[in-house]
Amino acid sequence: MSTTSTTSPRVKVWAPNRSRVAVGAAIALVINTGIWIAGRAADVSFLVGSPVGDMRVGLLEVILGTASGFALGLGLVTWAARRSDALVRAVLVTAVAVTVLSTLGPLTTAHETSSGALLAAMHLATGAAFMATVSGARGPAGP
Fold first, then answer.
1. Is the pLDDT at 44 greater than 70, yes or no?
2. Can you name the residues that pair with 138 across neighbouring β-strands?
3. What's the CA gap between 40 and 101, in Å, rounded?
4. Roughly how many angstroms between the first and final C-alpha of the chain, as a whole number?
């Protein structure tokens, strides 16, 4: 007599390790906060132009922008992982492209070169921390 298992095979999904995600996000926040503090100490204005007028990027905008970008990317990777490995790869490639292309915003709208360079560096730092957090974190989900 043979016994057949009635449980379905475990689906291989990307399972975010909460401590890894928290460390990755914290690193991005610390780096970007440090860039902003160093810039302000060097008298960088962080002034950028926008369609509604000039805007000074403050520490709150840095923190919120870093956290929201990280969370959006994490949500997209988690969503993609429930569908296919190919979609995860596509989302990660897109994340790199969006990170690099997003630097054009501050580089082209900042009122001074130093503001644009530091704001662009923050975009790259967030993207690098995100990629370091999610890369290689693929494997079977926990129980």
1. yes
2. 14
3. 25
4. 29
